[in-house]
Amino acid sequence: MLATRRLLLVSLPVVALAAACVSETVYPGDLTIGMFDFHAQANWARTDCKPDGGDFNRLVDGGFDFSGVFSRDSTDAGVWFTIEGFSRTATFDAPTQRYTTVHRASAQLASCGEGCEGAQLDETMSVVVLSDSQDRAIGSRCGNMPDGGLPDGSVPGPTANGYDAERACGELRVTFLPGKSAQCKCTVSCTAVYGLEGKRRFNGGQ
Fold this sequence. Notes:
The protein is built from 3 helices and 10 strands; from the N terminus they run ααββββββαββββ. The protein has helices at residues 2-5, 15-21, 132-137; strands at 31-42, 64-72, 79-83, 86-93, 98-106, 120-130, 158-159, 162-163, 167-177, 190-201.
């Protein structure tokens, strides 16, 4: 159950509580990119989970909010995304300014039936992090991102006032993988896709 709670979606009830003490967290690496307040909005055209599907109704509920921190290690190129005090490994692609983190955990869903084993949620979060000048170039709206490229402006990087990372634009994909034991009533996988928009929170130097 602990691993499951570390997924973004199923940890929603405690996100608000975690945000209150997140400034006390020591983030891995030696470079904190920033804390972002995210809003996730369902992309119905790319979602095949049914909104009235019992356990899955929260996966396509129209939107939710959460906060998290990207950090890096300048010596060994390690990258992490920290949420609720749990640091998930991530990757960073410098040419595209893209951070990606993937996490899989067991899913215990009532609709699968008692005794069902092996059901999982597979979660992929991928965002492009923009500098202040790039953010201004898109009018501070991820919907204005140019197709297949980056907006005009300087590349995010360290400054005298902290890391220049103002906005994060991307998506969150959550795929349900059904269990394989004979007791499982849920047998079909589905994927919920959310558009993500994150605003940098300047809190405690982050």
